[in-house]
Every structure is written in structure tokens, then in C-alpha cells.
């Protein structure tokens, strides 16, 4: 269903009318955030702002609110949860609760409200649904639970938008294919034999074994993966010992490995096991490895992404068609259910590595970004209208 330019401009004008109230909502949500699993108050506040009925509860604290008539909808997803970070932005409406919307979810929620209210006022050519998703920032995934609940079965498409400080302010990225990595976590536990630090020859020290394994993982990633496909291995936590003069009996490390293709997840897990086990054996120790599968890779539907890029350019919005990130987002679960499109909206006045990024206590997108994110949601919705196809039947979900 082609949406003509006159109707698009009417939609944009209606969104512009909604922005002052949407920005006020953004401030309220930002000042009073809720962490993953405790988002009920945030969902209630957004539902009140949508003013389209109570919606349907989903995935615990989540909600899906329909806008428009019957038939399969195009779904706009926004995330409810904040992070357990103490905010240091100095904004008049900064959070003082020890939690913070440091990933832009407050902007996404406000933008979805603006688009949804505009659609309710002028009429949507294809029904729209606002999905207020819980637990994007933690595991178990809120998106996986939404999919499991079946509330999106038959949806024509799911559209997501995320602010991105690695892109210049106002630029919108629409890229076909893989745009976010699959992310899994691992734990390596190396068992040795404890003893006196002055007599290492009669102990089996797990600390150097673990340190060597951590270093080797970086080298293996750079030499065993096609650099065009890419992989990232990061160790974020190392634990060992209780005293400086005692060789501990065990040492452990926790980290994550990210790949752009789901088919590479098995290879990555095998490499972690191989490195840990063989390195431990070389030091006279043994290793146990646990792999925790988290999010699959996020693949944008190519026709949706290409049409969105065309629409963005037609509206005079700067477009990026190459941005990819080794960040992960559980939006990827929707892409395994139906057509999915994740657009990234740049927030950076300064794209240097020193500028505050996602999950940083100083990250605070300008209020003007609420409007740009709303436009991105609109473009994704229009692209889904333009590339309207028969929805995926629920019984085919496992096959995908």
C-alpha cells in the first residue's frame, strides 16, 4: 500500500504537533526511571500518554497498545527499562534514583507516543501497534518472551529505532542485512592446586593459566575468524585468590563473544573451550567452560531497509547506509519472527571516542532527537506500508 506524499506530510505535521507533550513525557520518564523487571510504572505512564486504551499486558511488565482498525498491524517497538547507573548529566530533570535512561529508551518511548497519537488523530493506512517492551537490558530477554507470548503472530513488520552516539547528530542509518551482533557470555573456571607462593613448583597455579587463556582468546579471534565477518571477544571480570602470598586453587573469568552471523556462534563457543582447556592443560591445570547464549544477530529485512533509506532521502533526512555495530539488541528476536527493521539515529555533536556513549553516566541526547526518532519510526512504518507483503503465519515461526 503506497502512502502518497500529501498523506506523509500530513502525518509529519501531526507528529510535530505532538512533540511538545512528547518531550515533557521524556523528561518525566528520564527523571523517574525503572530498571529491568520493574517497569510497570513506566508502562502505565506511557499507556496514559498514548490515550488509546489499556492495551494488552505482555512479558510481565510490558504492554502492546493497538492504534487503528482491525487486521494485522505494523508494530513500533520501544524499550521500557533503564540501567542501574548513577546519572551525571547535570540536567534539571536528571534521575536521582540510582537508575538512569543511559541508552536513550526515554527518547524512544516519547517518540513512539508522538507517532501513535498522530496516527490516531489522522488515521493510519495500515493498523499500528505500540509495543512497550520490558527487559531489553538484561537476561532473560523481554523480546524473546514477547515472541513466545504470540502477540506478534501475523504482524506485517516490527520497526525499531535506537539512538546512536557513533553517528553524527540527526543522521539516520538504514542498512539491509546484519547490523547488530549475536552476543553470548562465557565463564572459564581453571582448577589447579593451591599452595604457598614461595613453593610454586609443588602447586599448580591457575592464575598464569587463566591470564594466558585471556590473552590467547584475543589472538585466536583475530586469526581464526574471517576479518570481513568479524568477531569480538571481551573479558570483563577476572576472579582469583584471597591473599598475596597464597597460590589459589582456582581462578575464573567471565566475558562475552560477539559475531555478526548466527552460524558463527558455534565456532566461537568451540574456540573458547579449546583455548581454555588446552591452555589449562599446558599449565598442569584443568578448565571448565560454560557458554550462555543470549541474543541472536540482528538482520534488517533488505526491502524494508532499502525502502526506508529511499524515504529518508526523499524527506531530506541525512542517510547512512553502511553503519553496523557489534552491540547487541534483543530486537533481533522479532527479525526471526517476521520482517524487522532497526534504524539508528545519530546523537553525536562530537563523534570522538572520548564523547559519552551508550550506557555512560553522562549520555544525554538533546530533546530535538525526540522529533528525529519519531520521524525515523514514521519512515519505518511507511516502508512497511510500501513493501506490504503477506504476514508470516504463526505455524511457520519455528521454521524461521
Compact description:
The chain is built from 9 helices and 16 strands. By secondary structure, it is α/β, with parallel strands linked by helices. The two termini are 25 Å apart.
- Count up the helices: 9
- Portion of residues within helices: 25-40%
Spatial strand arrangement across the major sheet: 1-2-4-3-5-16-6-15
Radius of gyration: 23 Å
Strand content: 15-25%
Shape: elongated
Structural class assignment: alpha/beta
Termini separation comes to 25 Å
Descriptors:
disordered C terminus, 400 residues, eight-stranded mixed beta sheet, 9 helices, 16 strands, elongated
Care to describe what's here?
- The protein has 400 residues and is an alpha/beta fold.
- The protein is built from nine helices and 16 strands.
- Strands 1-2-4-3-5-16-6-15 form an eight-stranded mixed sheet. Strands 10-12-8-13 form a four-stranded antiparallel sheet, covered by helices on one side.
- The C terminus is likely disordered.
